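HUMAN: Mind making up another protein with tokenized structure?

ASSISTANT:
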Amino acid sequence: MKRSLLVLFTALSGLALAEYPKETDYYPITPLPVPDGVVLEVSGIEVLPDQKIAVASRRGDIYTLTGAYDTDPGKVQYQLFAEGIHESLGLSYKDGWLYATQRPEVSRLRDTDGDGRADVFETLSDGWGICGDYHEYAFGSRHDKDGNIWVVLCLTGSGGTRADYRGWCVRVTPDGKVIPTTSGIRSPGGIGANHLGDMFYCDNQGPWNGSSSLKHLKIGSFQGNPTGNVHYQLTDAIGPRPEDPKSGSRIVEEAERIPEYVPPACILPHGSMGNSPAGIACDQTDGKFGPFKKQLFIAEQTASQVQRVSLEQVNGVYQGACFPFLSGFKSGNVAIRFGEDGILFNGGTSRGWGSRGGSNFALERVNWTGEVPFEMLHVSAKPDGFEITFTQPADVATLKDLASYNAKAYTYIYQSNYGSPVVDKLTPTVTKATPNSDGLSVRITLDQLTKGHVHELLLPGVKSAKGFPLLHPVAYYTLNQIPSD
């Protein structure tokens, strides 16, 4: 009898688990097979005409792929377009040319005889220095609205600067001129624009970075790490050298003291949101990828994930919330790019660093099934709390129940030492929850908001109108500014 009850309980538990929504019910991951003998440590992805894509490998090869959109991934075909490229960490297609941001330069490549391989290689610009250190990465954007490519340059050894403009972002104009644009960069993992054309990059945890962050590359700004500021002597393009931050301080204090300093738009709490954010892609698919229009998606290398970020501007400063989105990729995601039909391409490498996915390299795609997950869509700051909107109507009774919410707030030490523990911890209380009658949003009031803190909002008790919990019940909001009204 006991065995029969155990079997019945196991069967019912399995049924419940099978019916519980999971990420891949909405966004399945499809591996794209890589030919035998090809080591495709994906470092860049670009969309080409005629439903082709270009894929760069960290080892120096660039391939063009046909069939990457096909329902049957086995139909994908690879054509070697170029080889001998020096670690391309950015591809952009424009006017028949494929632009590759290499470690020492931005190059442009073209196939003029139609055999599928590049036969013209031109240096567009090489206006920064390298000295052979493996950390001297150069991540390049796609072309902006003015035709410029933005390049973020990692520090030498990720902590020093032994070559020109290491620790800076520069813009490369269509005619190859280099324009110094921002200082204060440490170890970037990727770069990309939002739907307005404003440029962002991901900086990794380390000196002057308590946790990895998404940062706004405002022209003329200082991004927080003063190591590369010695290169202000090379240019007067963005004004005089800013004052150095004080080690052991806090971001909010230094942002008020140093006018050029732009605080992180969204801190990605170390461990909770991965360890190594990389490429950035903006959803401009007009709903083909689901409900997250105009939001940013971030490749995460260590955790083999993709994260999601929803931003807003308050008092002219970017800030917003990050959310878990999708896990289970086969390698460490580095490159990410939206393609046609709302397809999201992802690729990366373990490169000896390791990644949760375990494979040395992988190229995968993600598509939306058409089913809408129950998620927090946006979190917006208010003078006394936050407004949270949802992708589906929530059960209003659970929105009204204060027991549905928990909150934490904390920050990091702004210091020259590597990283930071979580400090200045607070436990705000949700004192009021006012839902909209349609269940698509709720306004929560907290007994305290703290400028400069990450506010971790947990919604374990909120259920959808269909009775499902949130697929991801947590948001991490970086509160750089508190709205006045």
